[in-house]
Specification:
CATH class of the largest domain: Mainly Beta
Number of strands: 9
CATH topology of the largest domain: Immunoglobulin-like
Order of helices and strands: HEEEEEEEHEEHH
Number of domains: 2
Distance between the termini: 25 Å
Helix content: 25-40%
Structural class: alpha+beta
CATH architecture of the largest domain: Sandwich
Strand order of the largest sheet: 1-5-4-7-9-8
Shape: flat
Number of helices: 4
Largest sheet: 6 strands, mixed
CATH superfamily of the largest domain: Immunoglobulins
């Protein structure tokens, strides 16, 4: 599972308000990124020739950060996600390469320890046009200079970083903890749908006003609620 697909899937959740569908993954959590760890024992990053090298691991127990090394140019923006399907867990963080290293997170289950078990780290990069100018000059227009097994096509065109690895957190997976997490994720997603109906109707009202049409807020809200997938 690539981070590109994860990110698109997470973004698509917002569109599901207007179309019936079912998902057991809660809206992705966002986390603040602290500064990269000390670089005292870190080797100098290799010169970037277009072939992407990247490795990542967890750091920090049951509320870990994702740390990694790469030869991507300093300033490269990366999107890091940590997920576990069995817990309906997906969290994302944006980070920047500095001195050949990066750090994202820490990640938690809404402030609590992550459930034990296997997780997937996915790391990708946005389109070249969204990178700093110094990075764009190194990776080329639309990422045309990027190459190697850790790159892939973006769904919207161009070449981007596409890295994935499996990691373990804690001891043996706990089926009861996973079931409880899935149940909470479904309830949280259902509440998110309900809350989003206000935003949806506010947008519809704005369009109606511009077009000189009548707007029935109660009817809009009830229609939105009726389209929410059953738990």
């Amino acid at each position: 599972m690539s981070v590109i697909r994860n990110t698109l899937a997470a973004t698509t959740i917002g569109l599901l308000v207007a179309a019936c569908g079912q998902t057991d993954v809660a809206p992705p959590q966002s986390v603040a990124t602290p500064a990269p760890a000390s670089t005292q024992a870190r080797p100098a990053p290799a010169a970037f020739d277009g072939t992407v090298t990247l490795s990542a691991r967890l750091d920090g127990g049951s509320k870990p950060a994702v740390v990694g090394l790469t030869n991507l140019p300093d300033g490269t923006v990366l999107m890091v996600s940590l997920s576990r399907k069995q817990s309906s867990f997906l969290a994302q963080d944006k980070t920047t390469v500095s001195g050949g290293a990066f750090r994202a997170g820490p990640f938690s289950q809404q402030g609590s320890d992550l459930n034990p078990g296997k997780y997937t780290i996915d790391i990708g990069s946005p389109l070249a046009a969204l990178q700093p100018a110094s990075v764009q000059s190194a990776i080329g227009d639309n990422g045309s200079n990027l190459k190697g097994p850790l790159t892939g096509p973006s769904p919207v065109g161009g070449t981007v970083v596409d890295y994935s690895t499996q990691v373990a957190i804690g001891g043996t997976a706990d089926a009861d903890l996973d079931a409880a997490a899935r149940d909470k994720a479904k309830k949280d997603l259902h509440q998110w749908y309900i809350d989003s109906c206000d935003d949806r109707c506010r947008i519809v009202k704005g369009v109606a006003v511009k077009q000189g049409k009548q707007f029935d807020r109660d009817a809009c809200y009830q229609q939105c609620l009726a389209e929410i997938p059953a738990q």
